């Protein structure tokens, strides 16, 4: 996310603690564990659709910047 690269990840393990469901499509794309079709759809979206890919990359970068050390020291 800090590199502006959009994420496609499963909602398994600690991922939901890092990437929240309401960020779906804004900063990342989350698929259901074990749902190959869902995973494939999200991956195809990233490969074939530049606008959602670029928007998620920018959104992820923006989200990270809210929590970096420079932002924390401004408060």
TrEMBL record:
Annotated coiled-coil segments of the chain: none
Domain of life, per lineage: Eukaryota
One GO term (biological process): glycolipid biosynthetic process
GO cellular component: chloroplast envelope; membrane
Compositional bias annotation for Basic and acidic residues: 60-75
An example molecular function term from Gene Ontology annotations: UDP-sulfoquinovose:DAG sulfoquinovosyltransferase activity
Region (Disordered): 50-75
Full protein name: Glycosyl transferase family 1 domain-containing protein
